[in-house]
């Protein structure tokens, strides 16, 4: 299993990350589609080729082709939206919030999977990308749809752990002696 490969690759100093990676993927109260779509979207958001390959393998065992593509779409659309909305917020001039974004975002309205699942994946990716405005928006949609704070928190934990896994493994690769 690919989660196991990543756990095995984590160094001793990242024991907490290793334990958390196992925990968030085995003890979740999220549906299988919600869990593995969140894992995949978060892996993609990290940009770590190794983490993407390993977790995509596991996600492929749990997701339909449509859900797999929708998780990829969530990572893609949020890569754009998180930059745009974070920037308009950070500028500090509220006029930007009133201007139309003029960015195509049709996948959010028709993601090809249950809208709640897609919103959850967008929320998790937004956590990795650090966009408060998107986090607030997606959390409100999820809460209005009846999702509990505890389930939303699970998606945030998954985002945190997948991101920590990627950051640790990328740092280790950068610190490894170059082979000539």
Automatic annotation (TrEMBL):
Transmembrane residue ranges: none
Domain Carboxymuconolactone decarboxylase-like positions: 97-175
Cited Gene3D superfamilies: AhpD-like
Stored SUPFAM superfamilies: AhpD-like
Disulfide topology: 131-134
Recorded catalytic activity of this chain's protein: N(6)-[(R)-dihydrolipoyl]-L-lysyl-[lipoyl-carrier protein] + a hydroperoxide = N(6)-[(R)-lipoyl]-L-lysyl-[lipoyl-carrier protein] + an alcohol + H2O
Active site feature: 131, 134
Enzyme kind, highest EC tier: oxidoreductase
A UniProt-annotated Pfam family: CMD
Enzyme Commission (EC) number: 1.11.1.28
GO molecular function: disulfide oxidoreductase activity; hydroperoxide reductase activity; peroxiredoxin activity
Keywords, alphabetical: Antioxidant, Disulfide bond, Oxidoreductase, Peroxidase, Redox-active center
InterPro entries, alphabetized: AhpD, AhpD-like, AhpD_core, CMD-like
Gene Ontology biological-process entries: cell redox homeostasis; response to oxidative stress
Top-rank taxon, per record: Bacteria
Family membership noted in the UniProt record: Belongs to the AhpD family.
Purpose: Antioxidant protein with alkyl hydroperoxidase activity. Required for the reduction of the AhpC active site cysteine residues and for the regeneration of the AhpC enzyme activity.
Subunit structure and binding partners: Homotrimer.
NCBIfam families linked to this entry: ahpD, ahpD_dom
Protein's name in the database: Alkyl hydroperoxide reductase AhpD
Annotated organism of origin: Thermomonospora umbrina
Highest classification ranks of the organism: Bacteria, Bacillati, Actinomycetota, Actinomycetes, Streptosporangiales
Gene designation per UniProt: ahpD
């Amino acid at each position: 299993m690919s989660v196991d490969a990543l756990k095995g690759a984590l160094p001793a100093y990242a024991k907490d990350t290793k334990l958390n990676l196992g925990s968030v993927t085995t003890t979740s109260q999220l549906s299988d589609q919600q869990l593995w779509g969140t894992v995949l979207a978060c892996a993609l958001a990290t940009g770590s080729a190794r983490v993407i390959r390993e977790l995509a393998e596991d996600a492929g065992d749990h997701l339909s082709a449509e859900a797999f593509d929708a998780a990829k779409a969530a990572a893609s659309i949020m890569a754009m939206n998180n930059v745009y909305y974070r920037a308009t917020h950070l500028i500090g001039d509220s006029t930007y919030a009133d201007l139309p974004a003029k960015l195509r975002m049709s996948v959010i309205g028709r993601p090809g999977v249950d809208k709640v699942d897609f919103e959850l994946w967008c929320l998790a990716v937004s956590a990795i990308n650090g966009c408060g405005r998107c986090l607030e928006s997606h959390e409100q949609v999820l809460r209005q749809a009846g999702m509990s704070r505890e389930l939303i928190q699970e998606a945030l934990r998954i985002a945190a752990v997948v991101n920590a896994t990627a950051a640790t493994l990328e740092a280790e690769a950068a610190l490894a002696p170059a082979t000539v």
